[in-house]
């Protein structure tokens, strides 16, 4: 079983940025993908100037938000999926959610199709099957992990306490 060391510290604009590093035997010398380096598993775009920041979102000139800890980035992604996409916009299938998360204007039709297939396969559902994304459901966590894996090109290395903390931060 592979072990992860949690807490590699880096300084970003005077605040501590905490993220997960992967042991060299797993990492194979490759740099971590952007979504892991920025504690932003879903590659959520940065808040526009003057907008309400996410909990734990740090100042950044990047297109994608940088979060203080992995739990803050996971929390933002879970919030978007459950509260905004599922509840507010009524997006209840993998097809609908991914089309909004990774729209055709930003991605090729082939990429969006591959994304939908990847998440549907990981969830074990049809692309147009209605989901039950309650806040504490395994389906919600599995969907978030699958999407983050597609976004970064590798599975999330976060240990269970990161998800527990993210759910606490939602409250």
Overview of this protein structure:
This protein has 171 residues and is an alpha+beta fold. The protein is built from 7 helices and 4 strands, in the order ββααββααααα. A hairpin with a 7-residue loop joins strand 3 and strand 4. The relative contact order is 0.16. The N terminus is likely disordered.
SSE topology:
Layout: E1 4-12, E2 15-22, H1 24-27, H2 34-37, E3 57-58, E4 66-67, H3 70-88, H4 94-101, H5 109-123, H6 138-152, H7 160-170
Antiparallel strand pairs: 1-2, 3-4
Helix pairs in contact: 3-7, 4-5, 5-6
Give me the oligomer status.
single chain
- Structural class assignment: alpha+beta
Task: Tell me the strand percentage band.
Answer: 5-15%
Number of helices: 7
* Cα radius of gyration in angstroms: 16 Å
Terminus-to-terminus distance: 32 Å
- Secondary structure: number of strands: 4
Low-confidence region ranges: 1-14, 21-28
Shape: globular
**Major beta sheet, strand line-up:** 1-2
Q: Percent range for helical residues?
A: 40-55%
H and E order: EEHHEEHHHHH
Mean pLDDT: 82
Sheet bearing the most strands, described? Answer: 2 strands, antiparallel
Features:
171 residues; alpha+beta; two-stranded antiparallel sheet; 7 helices; 44% helix; disordered N terminus
């Amino acid at each position: 079983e592979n072990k992860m060391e949690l807490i590699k510290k880096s300084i970003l604009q005077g605040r501590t940025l905490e993220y997960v590093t992967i042991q060299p035997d797993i990492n194979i010398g490759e740099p971590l993908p952007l979504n892991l380096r920025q504690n932003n598993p879903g590659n959520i775009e940065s808040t526009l100037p003057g907008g309400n920041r996410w909990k734990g979102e740090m100042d950044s000139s990047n297109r994608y938000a940088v979060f203080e800890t992995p739990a803050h980035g996971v929390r933002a992604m879970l919030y978007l999926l459950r509260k905004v996409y599922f509840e507010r916009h009524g997006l209840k299938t993998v097809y609908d959610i991914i089309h909004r998360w990774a729209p055709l204007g930003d991605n090729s039709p082939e990429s969006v199709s591959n994304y939908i297939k990847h998440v549907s396969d990981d969830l074990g559902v049809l692309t147009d099957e209605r989901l039950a994304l309650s806040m504490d459901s395994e389906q919600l966590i599995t969907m978030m992990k699958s999407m983050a894996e597609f976004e970064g090109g590798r599975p999330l290395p976060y240990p269970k306490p990161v998800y527990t903390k993210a759910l606490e931060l939602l409250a």
